[in-house]
Design goal:
The protein has two domains: 281 residues, DD-peptidase/beta-lactamase superfamily (Beta-lactamase); 82 residues, Sporulation related repeat (Alpha-Beta Plaits). The protein is 38% helix and 21% strand. It has 13 helices and 13 strands. The strands form four sheets. The protein has a five-stranded antiparallel β-sheet with strand order 2-1-9-8-7, with helices on both faces. Strands 11-12-10-13 form a four-stranded antiparallel β-sheet, covered by helices on one side.
Length: 387
């Protein structure tokens, strides 16, 4: 009997070691901090050790920014793809060994595509090997006060010693924004082109949350679904981190809810550092824009620059006069938020009888979702309508 018990214990330990997702900490952890004061606005198990997954690439980008400021990287510096880098598992660009990629494209591939092959190639270019780069990552973490964080690779692929916390990841996000404000526009990148192919971001929060500045998502089986993002709205800025979500959809809904609840409690945002003209010019070369554009105050996602092809439906009625009354009621409630929208009464037929939909058109995707959240107490049936 004792022998059978010992055998069962050994099998259980082997299974847990081989399949780290079986020993996941549960449930999620999260934190929201005020970007101006650093005050914690919300936290739940924020100091619990977790696997950062591709949030790791935030530190890879931090070190990349250091190299750029030191003049050791230029936008067209070739990043060589070694045989080991080419063998990295997905997500990746699928570059063959012996090829190279310009450093400015590599930067966007880290953020948008979360390319593991590019992450290793950057590590090897900067430090000579990924292990040496990881040691620099951990050293930088200590310098930033991330005392519960350690790194073993540049991508976030599973390793039992590569762990962090929601609190440390929020500190890292804050350090990136305050230490390198000239690169703030990078976080809103939703796509990039390389070798006649376009790569698009899977960060849906960037599209659905008004004021989202972006940053990074991450997932491996051992970690669950992670996200780190800054949000700026109504002259307030917060940084939020969620680690260990059950799905991308639930994580995104949670992030949007945390942002909506936390922003009203944040202080008026005051930037602690402003980039000088040299840094702005340097970043402009990397981001393919002008230094003047980078010097403009960031208001999060600029809604005017997004396609305004979404609608919201705020009710369906048996009489057109009731639909028109609903439109007027909602416009009184939302006021300036509907300034550029168009109220519509659309007739349809249901079970042989006419029905009238009350809708607002000429909205961007983030506006549509934000307006429906604002109307929860007025009309719970508000529905964002995709083009």
């Amino acid at each position: 009997m004792r022998r059978k018990f010992l055998t069962l214990c050994i099998v259980t330990l082997c299974f847990t070691w081989a399949f780290p997702s079986a020993s996941l900490a549960a449930p999620f952890s999260s934190i929201v901090i005020d970007a101006t004061s650093g005050r914690t606005l919300q936290q739940y198990r924020a100091s619990q050790s977790r696997y950062p997954a591709s949030l790791t690439k935030l530190m890879s980008l931090y070190i990349m920014f250091e190299e750029i400021e030191a003049g050791r990287l230029t936008p067209k510096t070739p990043i060589y793809i070694s045989r080991q880098a080419a063998r990295q598992p997905a997500s990746r660009l699928g570059l063959r060994a012996g090829k190279s990629i310009p450093a400015d494209v590599a930067m966007k591939a880290l953020l948008v595509k979360s390319a593991n092959d590019v992450a290793m190639a950057i590590a090897e270019h900067i430090s000579g090997s990924e292990s040496k780069f990881a040691r620099r990552m951990s050293k930088t973490a200590r310098e930033l006060g991330l005392y519960d964080t350690s790194f073993t690779n540049a991508s976030g692929l599973y390793h039992w010693r590569q762990q962090s916390t929601a609190r440390d990841m929020a500190k890292l996000a804050q350090a990136l924004l305050s230490r390198f404000p000239q690169f703030e526009n990078l976080w809103q990148t939703t796509s990039f082109n390389f070798e006649e192919k376009q790569y698009r971001s899977h960060n849906r929060v960037l599209r659905r949350l008004a004021g989202a500045i972006g940053m990074k998502t991450g997932y491996i089986r051992a970690s669950g679904y992670n996200i780190a993002t800054a949000v700026q709205r109504d002259n307030k800025r917060i940084i939020l981190v969620i680690m260990g979500g059950n799905s991308a959809e639930s994580r995104d809904r949670h992030a949007i809810s945390l942002a909506d609840r936390s922003l009203p409690r944040a202080q008026t945002y005051v930037a602690k550092t402003k980039p000088n003209s040299k840094k702005l010019h340097q970043a402009a070369l990397w981001l393919g824009t002008s230094a003047q554009d980078l010097a403009k105050p960031t208001q999060g996602l600029v809604l005017a620059d997004l396609p305004r092809d979404w609608k919201i439906q705020v009710g369906a009625f048996s009489a057109s006069v009731h639909a028109s009354s609903q439109l007027q009621r909602i416009r009184r409630v939302l006021g300036a938020q509907l300034e550029n929208s168009e109220g519509l009464t659309e007739q349809i037929e249901r079970n042989g009888k006419p029905m009238y939909r009350a809708r607002f058109a000429n909205l961007s995707e983030p506006q549509a979702f934000h307006l429906c959240r604002s109307l929860l107490e007025v009309t719970p049936s508000c529905l964002p309508i995709a083009p």
